[in-house]
Design a protein that fits this description.
By secondary structure, this protein is α/β, with parallel strands linked by helices. The protein is built from 27 helices and 10 strands. Helix 1 (about 1-20) runs antiparallel to helix 2 (about 30-50) and helix 14 (about 330-340) runs antiparallel to helix 15.
Amino acid sequence: MKRLHSILASILLLVGSFLLSRNPDIGANLRGFYTGFALASGGYLGILRWGLPVRKRGWVVLFLVLAVGPRLFALNLIPSDDIPRYIWEGRILLEGYNPFAIPPEDPRLIPFRDEVYPQINHKDMPAIYPPIAQYVFMLLSTATDRAEGYRLFLLLVECAAVALMFRWVKTIGLSRDRVMIYALNPLVVVGIAGHGHLDSLQILFLVWALTLYAERREGAAMALVTFAGLVKFLAFFALPFFINKRTVRHLPLCIGIILASYGPFFFLEGAFSFGNLGHYLGVFEYYSLTYAPLRWMLGTVGAHAVTAIVLLGVLLWLWLSRTRPEYAVPPFLLLLTLMNTTVHYWYLIPILALGVVWNSRALVALTLLAAPYFWVLQRLSFEGVFVGAWWQPVATYVPFLAILWLEMSGRWPAPDFRSPSVGVVVPVLNDAAPLGRLLRSLDEASVPRHLVVVVDGGSEDGSREVAARWGARVVESPGRGRGPQIASGVGKLDTDLVWVLHADNLVPRGALAEIQRTAAAYPDAPGGAFRLRYEGAGLKMKIVSVASNAKTALFGLSFGDQGQWFRRGRVEVPSIPLMEDVETAVRMNDAGIPVWTAATLQVSTRRYGRQGTMPVVRSVVERVVGYLLRRRWTDEVPDTTALYEEYYRVDGDLLAGCAEGFPPPPSRGQATQE
């Protein structure tokens, strides 16, 4: 049945692609375009769901049919009015004029006006495309002055980028099926093959850069990111995610490439300029997710200020929490694009190209939900004006945000529900009282006792006896700190999933089933975590819990008291005495996209009650940020032994407070009380 569904989806994709491209002018036949786009989108989603109906050599042949066929159909579409701009700027650059300084309507360019000139958009504005794009236009102008020639070149560049994607996913250990996310997408077909947008060149450089970075060729990778930014400025925002202590030495090369690319423009006719980028950001506004409401509330300056602050904060936290750029660049570029003053549909195409690794359902949905954008082409076709309606972005972004919420909240449905086995690891040190409460809650959650491993770090309060009487497997830790404890416990399990709990947790009744459902609904996720809620919490603790949950939802940065779980073989537990939970979160981020589990764990407030809320929050923030800075900058797991010794007080020969972020346990023989 799955094979039959896949065959039908493949046919649907081809039929829909033919219908959407049948009329060259989309605006003149909008109904036919939408019919074809809907059919092609249904076939595309079906293929992503069921895969191609053939494997091995047949897979390659069918992939080429499904990828190349729609692009050949799309060549029937009228190219974008951006292409006349490409032709014009390449021509005047070849003639020695600076397109960054001299707009097309400038009287000095009257001798060059021909049949291309009337088709140019925004004749009063100088160029916005950066130098590498201008050099490409110039070289193409020596070979052709027809839009079809430019479009064919950009299509061939895209084919090279798709071929490179196969090398990329193979290098980082992903299935070749991931490439279908980009190559078979109907919006991509319309944007590159149909309308001939420049983004394919940017995609080639970005995919090439990420491939080389995965192969540890950082200098070449950063140079290629710079080239991508010199095709379209957006790509420059990917560069920070390639920088650490080892790669920062390549920054002079990147700066040199930028200076060398702009250098010749100092010697052209017309004063040196960076073009109309500032004008673009200050004047144009269309289809943005956030800019219009922000401008309505705060004014233009306030909207730009809030946008800049949000983007800078997100960039910093993504840089800290993800050491592999392929998992940091796509979400940041998506946010940057959606917060831009103008969001044309083809702006999503480079993000989707990088999304073959990110594999976000919400991003895939957004590219298909962008279909209302094309309504503006109807008015453009009949009236010659580019004016949208309020309902277009609403029809795109409201369902997108709903899907994004489903994806990020851990509530995505699991159509193929399976029950992976779940083993529990509980590291303890003098935690007899809270451990008893946790174990009773595991009973209520129907967790099998033989799949619970309690790893003791040298308790003297009867913690081992509490665990043994309950029926858990008790293991002595080979080293100090939670990291060695958890690693030792994982080694005693052979389950599909490993769930790490702290003694101060209380587990809700449906937690085990929720982990199994989430793992089935997100098969590519390396792991995840729960929301937390502090027991009997006042306002301050509620704010702390909201902040902790927010940093996990937005950046995948979970702590140990959030019930981290992960797939065996995808995430290796770090054997460090302190910050093992933060390192585990980083490793999950580097193995894919961790997910929420749609349940809430309760956490004791004993630590905050003894030390005070603000001192604890301040110390946690300082330690976590300090650790992440060292981890990200050095690209190595820091030795936290000194931090461990500094953080925990010593009472005789017993190292107190083994649990990261918890207060010191009592002296020998004294049980820990709530």
